[in-house]
Amino acid sequence: MALKSPVDFAGSITSGQKDPCCFGVPGCNPRCVRYNKKSRTCRLVTRAISVDRPQLDFSNSDWKKQFQEDFDSRFSLPHLKDVIDVEPRPTTFSLKSRTPLENVNGSMQGSWNGYVNDDDRALLKVIKFASPTSAGADCIDPDCSWVEQWVHRAGPRKQIYFEPQYVKAGIVTCGGLCPGLNDVIRQIVLTLEKYGVKNIVGIQHGFRGFFEDHLAEVPLNRQVVQNINLAGGSFLGVSRGGANISDIVDSIQARRLDMLFVLGGNGTHAGANLIHEECRKRKLKVSIVGVPKTIDNDILLMDKTFGFDTAVEAAQRAINSAYIEAHSAFHGIGLVKLMGRSSGFITMHASLSSGQVDICLIPEVPFTLDGPNGVLQHLEHLIETKGFALICVAEGAGQEHLQQSNATDASGNMILGDIGVHLHQKIKAHFKEIGVHSDVKYIDPTYMVRAVRANASDAILCTVLGQNAVHGAFAGFSGITTGICNTHNVYLPISEVIKSTRFVDPNSRMWHRCLTSTGQPDFH
Fold first, then answer.
1. Is CATH 2.60.40.1940 the classification given to domain 153-305+454-498?
2. Which residues are involved in binding Mg(2+) (predicted)?
3. What pLDDT score does 96 carry?
4. Helix, strand or coil for residue 110?
5. Contacts of 381 (CB under 8 A, 6+ apart)
């Protein structure tokens, strides 16, 4: 069966049982969407992370070759020369010159300038698993055979496909706020100027800026963006949703944009890919490059997205406050809800970083509230033995316990039930019912963690991503995004990273470390 992702395999599974449809599918992640308390069974939706895999016959000695050919085809970067006749020219980018290179001669091109060769590659996966039962195992075949999967290294090339002095570049920030947006905007502008681009504009308030007449372009240059990284938010503004893709491309043509840098998450990248495809249909010489932005850290194939580290750090203040409240009160219980619609990376990492969290609840791991193995029973144990407790829950966790509204926001995301409020009420009701005093303090720092300025770690990441986005556009690539894979900066086709959301793997070592830190049992 060739997988088309996101792939939903619906099935039923008893608590503690392995999902039968996951074997041999790397990145396969079962997610509970309906938990039956009486039978202790869970209706699963299993999502395949490695996608569009060819039908493989493992008895065929050439199956590895077939797999690699398919992989190389899928991860080949779309290029302007695929659809239009365009000739390269020597780059104007140099690490040895304060100004863009002009009239580049052969000797300058032959000297060291920090260029990346077009054939440079980085490994997408670096662990060779010995068995499918190894923690976090990501196997292609039942024997966990090693297959090299190479992706394109990011960076400046010797040859470029645009004349910088004639380029008009646009930058747009979409979706919600995220620490580091201004850092990326700033670095894109500075790098474009390093190439010699003088016409740089910002599109206000996301894709809305392409069709709202009163939202004028914002001219950008070094003087304008010099200090914008000192504040949180987005200098250009954000919004969710957008216009018809054809209308956006019409606007791109009318504005005579040659490059568009799109900062956003999965939904924004999906929109950017559609814009890229429409530009290809019209045979436009326009490079569309994405920069992955989400504090949820849920973009496929990437180690980390910008804003994540800052969000985890900002969450510490809420967790520490909840800990002090719980520790100081008689039978105190601190409850903190953090962002994470479908992925629990912030909650998991914040819990690990704190070291004080007793219970960590994430969307990828279903849990029961009542019964001998439930969260409430464990809370009783913590109050009896420690005298207080601290819970950290992701906003998308435990949705099976809440009534579903089926309503969606402007980006098409399902509006979630409030698991924080639900837990708060359930905990208070439970301890009242058993006649034990409790003092529950609920903290929801949702928007506080995303509106702050990027910390040092994210600022560095934003700088690198902004530079590489510009290098990718000048190299003639379009429909790509840039990110970190196994500590290396790479380019990936947008079409591959939007095929599914990245989830916490409940079998991963990182989740196991979190469980070791909290000491929580299996809530099934």
1. no
2. 266
3. 79
4. helix
5. none
CA angle (461, 355, 18) in 5-degree steps? 85
> Matching CATH topology for 153-305+454-498 and 308-452?
yes
Tens digits of per-residue pLDDT, 213-226?
A: 899 999 999 999 99
Domain boundaries, the chain: 153-305+454-498, 308-452
- Comparing CA positions, the residue from 320, 415, 431, 319 lying closest to residue 369 is 431
Catalytic residue, from 296, 309, 358, 505: name it.
296
- 395 known member of a binding site: yes
The answer, yes or no, to whether the previous bond of 6 is cis (omega within 30 of 0) is yes
Is 450 marked as binding a ligand?
Answer: yes
Amino acid at 246: S
Any idea of the CA torsion for 94, 96, 100, 101, to the nearest 10 degrees?
-80
In DSSP notation, 3-27 reads --SS--EEEEEETTPPPGGGTT-TT
Q: What is the CATH number of domain 308-452?
A: 3.40.50.460
Quick check: 458 pLDDT over 60? yes
241 is in an annotated binding site: yes
Average pLDDT over residues 478-490: 96
Q: Other C-beta atoms within 10 Å of 126: how many? A: 11
DSSP 276-330: HHHHHHTT---EEEEEEB-TT--BTT-S--BTHHHHHHHHHHHHHHHHHHHHHST
- Dihedral in degrees, nearest 10, Cα atoms 95, 101, 106, 112: 0
3-state secondary structure 330-372: CCEEEEEEECCCCCCHHHHHHHHHHCCCCEEECCCCCCCCCCC
Q: What is the mean pLDDT of the chain?
A: 87
> Does 240 count as an annotated binding residue?
yes
pLDDT top residue among 429 and 111: 429
Of residues 325, 352, 324, the one with CA closest to residue 338: 352
Is 213 a residue of the active site? no
Q: Identify the H or E element spanning 246.
A: helix 245-255
Is there a binding annotation on residue 296?
Answer: yes
Question: Judging by DSSP bridges, how do beta strands 332-338 and 150-153 pair with one another?
Answer: unpaired
- The helix or strand, by DSSP H or E, that contains position 271, with its residue range, turns out to be helix 266-281
Annotated binding residue 341: yes
pLDDT at 4 over 90: no
Compute the distance between CA of residue 367 and CA of residue 364 in angstroms, rounded to an integer.
10
317 CB contacts (<8 Å, ≥6 apart)?
445
What pLDDT sits at residue 113? 74
In DSSP notation, 168-198 reads EEEEEE-SS--TTHHHHHHHHHHHHHHHT--
Q: How far apart are CA 134 and CA 462, in angstroms?
A: 34
SS3 247: helix
CA 415 to chain centre: 19
DSSP 79: B
Q: 0.90 exceeded by the pTM? A: no
